[in-house]
Input
Amino acid sequence: MRFRGKIADIGCIQHFTRIIGTLSKLIKVCVLRITPSNWYFILSEKLVSGGVHIWCELPQGHFFDEYALEGVSEEANEIFLELAPENLTRALKTAQNAKWIKIKLTKKHSPCLTFEVDLPTLSSHSRTVVHDIPVTVIPRRHWEDYEEPEVPQFDVTIAMPQLKILKNVVDKMKNLSNYVILSANQNGEMKLMVETDMVSVSTHFRDLVNPVNKDRVPSSQSSDAPEPDPHQFAEARIDIRKFAQFLTGQQVNPTKVICNIAKKKVVHFFLLHDDVSLQYFMPVVSS
Output
């Protein structure tokens, strides 16, 4: 197995850094899937036991100026690596003004993803910083554990309000309860509510957009399903701290954030920025 790539555009380096920074806020360990066309960062916890599922897709052509991959075989030209995004973030902290970054799969004492960062200097001499990030190679027999998650049929699809506003609301609500009820309808309305024995607090958002399924927004809604009442709310009870963590971690300033609710099953957040997409599946908690 071999991999090497080079990012030379400062804007791409900074965008790449923000994406990795977002992932490091959301997850401690994930799987990086490297293919000829894309990088995927994957977290696959068991939804039935309260875990979340994350699928982040980066087209390599959007970032890399040079890209060479030799996977485990000709038929399976891919590489799966387990790593800690926080280690990537530390390596990229030195690269904010870099002239280029080279990323290679190496083997030193153990497999590593090696970052070579070429930093600007006042002289003609180059200054290169090297970071060796330990990784674990995932055997091919386990690859099926990291397939793209199936998207259920949603009851409601709605564009979310500004994430900063949501974060401020949720940060206050999480002091009252461990759970928040997120509800929305097809009439552009969304509600957040926490309930305790002592108090019930809710925040309402109106005039939001219910997007038609285009522009790569995942959906499995049947085209021949009956039209639901647009004023009827679909609601989901979710872990408020995981929701707050999701809102706090965003550093990519997405151009589109879609919330899909499948009652009694899952809340699915879809973030899109340029060609980069992030799907975040949060399981519903029964009351």
Remarks:
- The two ends are 48 Å apart (CA to CA).
- The domain at 156-265 is CATH 3.70.10.10 (Proliferating Cell Nuclear Antigen).
